[in-house]
Fold each of these.
Amino acid sequence: MTDTPTHQTWIILGASSTIAKAFTRSVAATGAHVILAGRRMDDLNASAADAKARGVADATPIIFDARIPDTFQAIIDLAAAQSGTLNCAVFVGSMPTQDAIDADPALVDGTISDSFTGPARFLQMLAPVMMARSCGSIVGVGSVAGDRGRVGNYVYGAAKAGFATYLSGLRNHLGRHGVHVLTVKPGPVDTAMTQGLGQQPFMTTADAVVADIHNALRKKRNTLYTRWIWWPVMTIIKLIPEPIFKKMSI
């Protein structure tokens, strides 16, 4: 971040998610301005009130739906009207079970829109505004599921893989204009999205993920695995030869 905290604006997409709420609390304490974008206006209003109680400069709730591009421009216009450094954190995504998608292939469209194409289109529209200011950060939350297609969640994994590739190219592009792009790859996080999946390996909490994000932003990291153990784990998984991998149940 290149400006003082009171001149920071954060667009938070998917602001109703557990991790997004933890992130909102963390930036509210710095006195930043937050734009809370999501589908549930009642929840966004409650989050805005909570952020104001924590010392945020201002908190603006606004409708965002990754599947409805007509909701994008109003957010960008609102952000562009703010002075100082503009940032964006993307927590949008949906994860139907693979069994549900197998039973109803129409779920593929929404999964990819929520987790990849909707956020990518929004960031593509936002990019010129950030380039013009030659500063700011983008946090794009992907998943370790995007590192290799696995039998249990390959549609969700494909969406997150596409988003990670998009963020890599966006980082290459915007980095030439002073904008930092961080790709975050969490493993299982204790949130509403993972409820019902049972105990998962190396599960972490939303607050721990947010702390890792801020540390990675300070260090201008390109990619963050959280928890850190997922970096060696996924490195090994990506190296498994395909004939062997096809016989595995991971």
Amino acid sequence: MAELKVTQVKSTIGNKRPARESVRSLGLKRIHHSVVVTDNAVNRGYIRTATHLLSVEELSAEGSDQS
């Protein structure tokens, strides 16, 4: 399954509660903290809610070659 590397680039101070809670639900605790999460609908929703606070990179699935 694909994975996303999510990095918090801005503070949650002064943002609305749904954005703050989404950042926390992704496992991010401070600015420049990164986590790798699975690419699913729940995590995409969290990212969409707080897109102005986050930087997202898609990680390639190098080791999951199934022929």
Amino acid sequence: MTTGLMAGVFGLYQHTVMVGLGRSDDRTFIGAFQALDRAIINPWFMLSFGGALLFTAVAAFLSPGRQILPWVLAALVLYIVVFGITVAVNVPMNDALKAAGSPDTITDLAAVREAFNEARWVAFNLVRTIATTAAFGCLCWALVVRGKLG
């Protein structure tokens, strides 16, 4: 469930949030992105984001047979990639944009937006979206295989 929720979060950012923000002016982009980034750090998101990794690892450990283990391990590897990209790329980019300060106090909004590098953020988010969706698919298939076993 948590992996599916994360696929939805990353997908929504990919096809809606960043597209909408990309069409906005610099002040709106910076202010809205900062507000979204502050809002997303909440217990529900953290449960889903960390839970997807934890619960998939537990599922791999408790896997009842060789038939489903490859699917669960594939999901785990895919989500480890997602977790790593998030921690190494997207979060530092988010933090740098927040560190720029309020849009009301930034003297060169265009330079701050350019330094953020939306295209890079979106490209790495696309990888997260595809990998998390694939991980969710692997976990779903593991359930199908498990159902056929018994």
